[in-house]
Design goal:
12 helices; seven-stranded mixed β-sheet; 9 strands; two-stranded antiparallel ribbon; Rossmann fold
Length: about 280
């Protein structure tokens, strides 16, 4: 497993750690996998503050996916860079068509703990090479998750991926977390992913520009460290996280962007207008 693939163990450790404490995220599968597959983490990669970030980020993504499926229950869910994440078990429904995508070596590991069903599939592919999109079934709407993966794409690679997905589905809604450009510069000196030999590739400060270049639209930013999740911490940890690590400090390093395909509406006189 290469260095980029090994980064999947950092959020896995975080989710297992908060599960043990009974806070933020209920993820027994993460705890199970970590006990069997985990290895010694060093430096910031094993920081308790980072585990809280990882748990909160996953919880925010979970909430968002649930909301999308409530609004469009027929949507296909596509999780790009799934790692060992158990979101399909945490929130997936039997009738939901769900595809988890990651590198072949990751999917090989994943198959030890997950079983495909009629509606659940694991797809081994390098997401930066868009030929795999053709293996996905057609769907009028797709809910796309990119958690902890966009920073390993060059911006042109992200543009190619989004354009490919936009061309395949009738419509899609995407949520992805991104490093800021400041965070990319800072990560050259200190970043937990360096402890497993990986390196950040890009940051994104202007999601509207990315949306425009792919024919999509930027529809909003989510809070990765919401107050109610910080509130699950206790005493000093809660005060320190809220004051020092959450809010503005978090946004200085990480952002959580939602993009959607543009809608085409038919106006009077049978002309179409893209909005």
């Amino acid at each position: 497993m290469n260095s980029v693939n090994k980064t999947l163990y950092i959020p896995l450790y975080g989710k297992a750690a908060v599960r043990k404490k009974g806070i933020i995220l209920h993820d027994p599968k993460a705890e199970l996998i970590w006990e069997k597959e985990g290895f010694t983490l060093h430096g910031k990669a094993k920081s308790k503050w980072l585990t809280y970030y990882m748990g909160m980020r996953s919880a925010v993504f979970d909430r968002w996916v649930r909301e999308q499926l409530e609004n469009t229950p027929e949507a296909l869910v596509l999780h790009i860079g799934c790692g060992m994440d158990s979101r399909v078990e945490r929130i997936g429904k039997k009738e939901t068509v769900w595809y988890d995508v990651d590198f072949p070596s990751v999917i090989e590991e994943r198959r030890k703990y997950y079983r495909e069903t009629e509606n659940y599939r694991m797809l081994a592919a390098d997401a930066r090479q868009t030929d795999w999109i053709g293996e996905l079934p057609a769907s009028e709407h797709a809910v796309v998750i990119m958690e902890g993966v966009s920073m390993y794409f060059q911006i042109p690679e992200l543009e190619k991926l989004l354009s490919g997905l936009k061309g395949h589905f009738g419509s899609l809604t995407l949520l992805m977390d991104c490093y800021t450009e400041f965070a990319v510069k800072a990560s050259k000196y200190k970043n937990p992913i360096k402890d497993v030999g990986a390196q950040v590739t890009s940051g994104l400060d202007d999601p509207a520009k990315l949306a425009d270049s792919t024919g999509m639209r930027f529809t909003g930013e989510l809070d990765m460290t919401p107050d109610d999740l910080i509130g699950e911490l206790k005493g000093f940890e809660r005060a320190f996280f809220k004051t020092v690590l959450g809010g503005k400090m978090s946004k200085k390093m990480y952002r959580l962007y939602e993009l959607k395909t543009k809608e085409t509406r038919r106006e009077h006189g049978d002309t179409e207008k893209t909005v």
